[in-house]
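Researcher: Re-running this chain for the archive, since the previous output was lost when a drive failed. Same request as before.
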Amino acid sequence: MAVSTSFHHSDPPASLSKPVTVTVLEGHDLKGLKGDCPVTFVRAEFNGVVLGDSPKVDTSPEGSVKYNFTATFDCSPEGQHSLDDIAHKPLMFTVIEVLPKEKKQKDEKTVTLGQAGLDLLPLLQENATVFGEVFFWCCIEVSVSVQDSLLSPTQLSEGNLLRVTVEAAYAVPEAFVPAGPPQNYMVGFQVPAFGERECPFLFRNGVLKLGGEKEPVPRPKKWPAGNILAPGGQNIPDSFIVGGPYEEENGELNTPEERETRILGETVKKRIVWDLERRCYLDPAAVLCFRKRIADCRCWPVEITRVPMVTSTKGKTGKGEKGGGGAGGMSGTGGDEEQISFHGVTFVNLVPLLYPGVKSLRGAFRVFAYHDTEVFEKTKCLFSLFRDVGYQAALNKVGPMGMYTPHTKGILGKNTKEEKSAKETVIRKVSTVVKKDTSDTTLEAAVSIFQNIEGQQYVESGTFLVIEFALDKALVPKRLPEELASRVKEMIPPRPQLPRRTAGAKKEVEDYHAQVISIAGAILDEYHELFGRQLVGGAAVDSHTLEDQKCRLNYELNSSGKYFAFKEQVKHAVVKIVREKYLKTTAFDNLDQLQAFLSELYVYLVDQMHVALNQVLSHQSPSPPLPTYTTSKQLRLFAHEAQANEDYLLAATYYQERLARDRQDIESWLDYGAFCLLTEDTLKAQECFREALALNPKHLHSLLLCGITAVMLENYEEAEVFFEEATCLEPSSVLAWTILGLFYDIQENDIRVEMAFQEATKHQKARLAKEKPPPEPTADASSRKTVSAASSLVPAFAVSVEELVSDEIQDTSMKSQTDPLEPALVEEEMLPVPISKSSKRLSTISSKVKMGTQKEPTKPLVVVFEAEPSRAAASQPPSTIFMETISFLMEVYALQFVHRALAHELVCPQGGPSCDYYLVLAQSYLLRKEYGKTEECLEMATQIDYLNPNVWAQKGHLCYLTGNFGEAKASYERTISFVTDAKDMHFVYLRLGSIYLEEKQYEKAKTTYLLASKKSPSCLTWLGVGIACYRLREMAEAEDALSEANALNNNNAEVWAYLALVCMHGGRQLEAEQSYKYAVKLELANKDLLQEIREVQQEVGFGDPSF
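Model: Regenerated structure tokens:
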């Protein structure tokens, strides 16, 4: 631990005594008690010491007076007035009137006109002078200055200022009554102020109030002083308690469930009000100690107690005691200390002060009975400020304002007369607390638990203390957004988007057309000037007349120079055509080549001139170029199909084709990067994500994915920069904060993990509050409606599984009906399916009933349509921040983060092993081909939510990949029978259709593939339709479907093979041979299909060009 700069010998300016000069300049609006021109003087006091009185001056008739009074006091760490005094004590000014002498009066009589205080805190904030006006009933201008700064540059930059505001204790025990002997209600704790030396914070003289109304806000904060007598003089200037929403607090009673308890305690029940703010300067060594203790202990013990007020009879007031007799009217030091009662403690979690950039925390904290064992377990502290030190020891040693100065020799116990050296006065170090024997501690703890019955009343009453900790500078600095953006630019320089330009040759031809049209318009205008705009209506113009007009027009153009101008105008366009279209940039070898080229160029230019003139004369715009048949979205779908079939080479081709079409598309780069993560090519994935981020440095997903790949490559410093930049760009992003928390979890930084998850939860709650739907009927009413609806619909929907699937495929209008009903397959003895409030639907159907539909598919079943909570649940966002983040992480195949997020979901109070949890876990195992674990997870998901279509879809995929096509078919049929679609219905249709084709159920295969083609057409969906139609001998429909498939992908050998079969059956020899040639050229892998083609070729006698 570093030594405090206040005591370090290498920093002499900070350790020497420094004079503070106080100047009272003048006063305004002064009025005396006996006249408008009183004789007054000003008394300056600080820290219980009178600094001096100004001369007695007469006040002018206008009420102004010039005092020009100067007083000084010395500030030093070991002296009478310390930095801590400057931080939290006001400089008091009292205006006193000197009354005129009466007859036979020997001494002057005085009366206090007013009193006010000046805050000296700016002297600790790089200000060498404080100039201000002190207001009470009049105005006094004062100035406070120091020749040199009270703090050294090191202390200014590395030190800190702590402000603690104790507002009130609410819902206090009923034993607290205003009647009876007066009581002093106190709150106290200690913090390191100078290195590891402790500074006690004591808040005294709490005011007991009865319930009935809430404390007003804003209300002023008060000085922690007991010797300010003027009304309003205790208020700290420009410092107020403003309160705030409970949800934004850092305490314990800030959840919606506890809101009613909080409101009840703050309005109806008794409370003790302090509204005191205590400040303390922390030197650099104390800042390090304070930060370390928070990290080690997390909670800070804040004690509360009650002490009887007894008038002092033995204590003497003087400068040495600093007005100890004015400390709230308590017993003096000469007598025995009064017994404390109702000793309680609240554990303030100060961990948020270690969050980057956090300067303050405020909240309500429950009060518990003070027990040594409990305090030690939570705070690692065996030291009680009130019991072991004694409140009188602390109060009388530090003066009337309840402060602890660095020159105090120590407060190790009530015996304060023993003087020890500075090395022996370590007050409260975690490893060197005032320790007791282990056996004594155990015994005393048991006695303490038995004896502290009064403190237990805090727990029974539900007492909570509202307190605020604030710092001038954050204990953990937060990197500025500008710094993070600069770091990101250093790692990934942004690339400007390239302007879209038309191809060179095409653009030059278009420019030539534009010049031709422009010149034609100019010639037409010249013609109108020469011959007018009148045409012979309905009569043909004589050829001789036309020839004369042509000659005259040529003459005018040549004689005026316009012909030459038109030629120069078109010359540049012609030169660009020669360079861009014909690529002629060098001289010709001989005249023959030149003449041949000029002839070719002339013909081309004349043709293009006619094209341009025809566009003008016919008023027809040029036809737009044919668009690309496959869009970027379709290419993405084709790539996903190839991934599902584990054809990664084809998938990579589709992703690269998307990038070749538009390298400025961020989503194309992200999709290709996610594919590289799937194939475990992390370096290439990093390149893709960085390319996306270079296109848009403020793209959230690009930043997060760059951070994820950096973690995978163990570049943790870069990853932290990316994640922090993401939270700066979108501070309300639940995704960014959660992933940042998962990153800190990898680094085992528990405090920042807590910070990030708290931010994510806060923003998710705020967003859900805005999206909250109107209130719905109660669960009981909805469940009764469910049962009645199910009962009334049973007779009308008794069908078999085969009929259900057929009807579902042939007519999809059932899914678009407005009646919110969902089919559930059960046996004829209808079993209830309860609906839980948390939308986790736990089926009560036994496992035998669940599997019965698969083992006996021909058995008649009953379709029970029940009110559909799953549709509403599916439309709602995930219930926790982790499930919301997992959906993104699964899309990009970041399995390392997925499993870590699942671990947090499992222990999250709002989460747990839900259906979604097991479903995501099953998907991750399925990607790793761990089929056994996948099956276990899906079984658990099925038990939790039997009617979840996504579970049945994943179960079908598992059975399909393991070769169990019978079970896969049953699962897929169940999936498409639900009203709510699964997320990956496209692959459900594809695989179910392939199973139907294998089982030669061609009609069902055709209908299934048609459903897939309607929702998301691809080459594979139309190929399935074509195969089914071909097997059904519907050749025309088969050819149409195969043509659609060929248009989407003309490199599929199987499409060409079936086209060859269709053409051979249609007798089209040339087309059959061409299709067969392409199927062979593309290396048709289906041996059975190739054998079938050869058999048909033998049958029809053509189809193979080698015949």
